[in-house]
Design a protein that fits this description.
The chain is about 35% helix and about 15% strand. By secondary structure, the protein is of the alpha/beta class. The strands form four sheets. Strands 2-1-3-4-6-5 form a six-stranded parallel β-sheet, with helices on both faces. Strand 17, helix 23 and strand 18 form a beta-alpha-beta unit. The longest helix has 17 residues. It is globular, with a radius of gyration of 24 Å. It starts with a helix and ends in a 6-residue tail after the last strand.
């Protein structure tokens, strides 16, 4: 079997029906074979970074590796931000790069380059992949692809890169009948049960327990088991940024979003709880704040994670379990019968929420209140199967106020924090969901980074509803400049500009509309969803000085957020 034929058959056998790419000389043979074999959505993007982000979103939705291809040199290096995004957010992905012929590679020679566009992409991406392969013999490919699949999906998921020289792509290979699969060590049932017994004992004596849920629950395909667990114990739940879709907005146990820009009442709960159960989240700086002594004080912390290195990482003393969340949740649900009464605690949290809701943080601003808008957008977007956001103010306003149903997923760039993510991610999500409607939320700055993918949306007629939260600046940094740089707006306002997004969308044959005042919101949302199966762009114009509040105060406990005058 020819190498390119093997690649096509391998992807089909694994249930992959979509690949994202930008054509180039060193991947021409592979794409030609995928086309001839048929059965693939070959999605031609307009930048390799966008192809990588789309593959990232496909991986998040399906829990199968997203596939993106790039040619040698600039094609491969343009994938790097998306590769890093998959690595830091634990997304399964396989990136296939073409490489110059073996006889054009410099090898150990001191010269910088021999072949045109020759670039050692494998050495470059090793720190941000679970594995990276520089193929030297065609016969290696069946083993490499099988290993790559296992590595990308097993344990803590992540990206793998396979770099294939052009001359090897036409070679004939023999497919071995058997292979050794990678096994992941499992925690013993006894170890898990001892952990559960200690947890149950702490919960019986707790007055203020709390669960912090992260992206690990989705990665483990454990959403149903997670909901059963919190309902059995009657536990309130706060969410990390990437854990927002682990629990529906209207679930009685849901508290809210925590972190640097978290809901004030959710941060209060996280800061004052006496037992904290961390499920698939890292307890990073943006969750705990820099005052670790305050965060740790008077708390018993139980931390379950599939990666041992994340346990007792930033501070010691947690009771830890290195296990797949599904193993822990299944056994806990089988062995737990009691439901404790924490009504005093949940009532206390609810009172804090009523005292200062998210929609009141910006009560004195001019024009559209973004938190109110996100609530209304959520309520009018029941047909959307997923929401994507970019990075910046739009991401935080959305996390604070989005109302997700049990059927909706939330996708955003977490650890990498990559602007330009939302639009191509919406493309990847829509394909993964069978071209279902997806809401793409972006800021005006991030949207312009991959604005060219409007053409991909139009060409494929994807029902992506694009919402630009347009504050006419790079708002998060502009707010930072107000606080620390005497309002010197270099490169956020001064030296920065936006086009007329409505005109840009229409140039791509996508209908669009602009709103700028609160009384236009309903009409704008009606226009957005008027034709469900067609793309639409809604430009939401905000006052340039619209801030994101509340905001964690550096060096202070997470319960202390600015503005101080609104302190709970």
């Amino acid at each position: 079997m020819k190498v390119t034929t093997y690649i096509a058959h391998f992807l089909k056998e694994k249930g992959i029906d979509t690949v994202f790419e930008l054509q180039g000389g060193m991947i021409t043979r592979i794409l030609d074979e995928l086309s001839k074999q048929g059965g693939f959505n070959i999605v031609s993007m307009h930048h390799e970074q966008a192809a990588a982000f789309a593959a990232d979103a496909y991986g998040r939705i399906t829990n199968k590796p997203g596939i993106a291809l790039g040619t040698s040199g600039p094609g491969a290096t343009n994938l790097i931000t998306g590769i890093g995004n998959c690595y830091f957010d634990s997304v399964p992905a396989i990136f296939i790069t073409g490489q110059v012929n073996l006889n054009e590679q410099k090898g150990d020679k001191e010269t910088r380059q021999i072949g045109f566009q020759e670039t050692d992409i494998v050495s470059i991406v090793r720190p941000i992949t679970k594995a990276a392969y520089a193929v030297k013999e065609a016969s290696e490919l069946p083993r490499i692809f099988e290993e790559a699949w296992d590595i990308a999906t097993k344990g803590r998921p992540g990206p793998v890169l396979i770099d294939i020289p052009m001359n090897l792509q036409k070679d004939e290979i023999t497919i071995p009948e058997k292979r050794n699969t990678i096994t992941v060590n499992k925690s013993s049932k006894q170890t898990i049960q001892l952990f559960i017994d200690e947890l149950n004992n702490s919960l019986e004596n707790s007055k203020k327990p709390l669960v912090l849920v992260g992206h690990g629950v989705r990665l483990a395909n454990a959403n149903n088991e997670f909901l059963e667990f919190i309902e059995k114990h009657n536990l309130p739940v706060v969410s990390s940024l990437l854990g927002l879709d682990a629990i529906p907005y209207n679930h009685p146990n849901r508290v809210g979003f925590i972190g640097t820009y978290g809901n004030r009442w959710a941060n209060y709960a996280l800061g004052t709880c006496d037992v904290l159960i961390v499920l698939g989240s890292r307890l990073d700086l943006r969750q705990t704040g820099s005052d670790l002594d305050s965060f740790r004080k008077d708390k018993t912390i139980f931390h379950i994670d599939i990666e041992k290195a994340e346990l007792n990482n930033r501070f010691d003393g947690c009771t830890t379990l290195n296990a797949n969340l599904t193993e822990f949740l299944n056994l806990s649900n089988l062995t737990t019968d009691s439901k404790n009464d924490y009504s005093d605690w949940t009532n206390e949290i609810e009172q804090k929420k009523q005292q200062l809701p998210d929609t009141a943080e910006l009560s004195n601003i001019k024009g559209i209140n973004p938190n109110i808008f996100i609530h209304r957008l959520s309520q009018r977007s029941k047909h959307a199967k997923a929401f994507t956001t970019d990075v910046g103010n739009n991401q935080m306003w959305t996390a604070q106020s989005i109302e997700l149903s049990s059927e909706q997923q939330f996708l955003s760039s977490g650890g990498m924090g990559a602007m330009g993510y939302s639009l191509p991610a919406a493309i990847g999500a829509s394909f993964a969901l069978g071209k279902a409607p997806v809401v793409c939320i972006a800021g005006d700055g991030g949207f312009q980074i991959n604005i060219q993918e409007l053409q991909t949306i139009r060409r494929n007629n994807l029902p992506i509803k694009i919402v630009i939260i347009n504050n006419h600046c790079l708002g998060m940094i502009r707010q930072f400049q107000d606080a620390y740089f005497d309002s010197c707006y270099q490169s956020t306002v001064n030296g920065y500009n936006t086009p007329d997004f409505e005109k840009v969308a229409k140039a791509y044959d996508i209908n669009a509309f602009t709103i700028s005042s609160p009384n236009e919101i309903e009409n704008g949302l009606k226009r957005l969803w008027e034709i469900r199966d067609q793309p639409f762009l809604l430009n939401v114009s905000l006052d340039i000085h619209t801030n994101v509040y509340p905001k964690m105060m550096f060096g202070s406990p997470i319960t202390e957020m600015e503005p101080i005058k609104n302190q709970l």
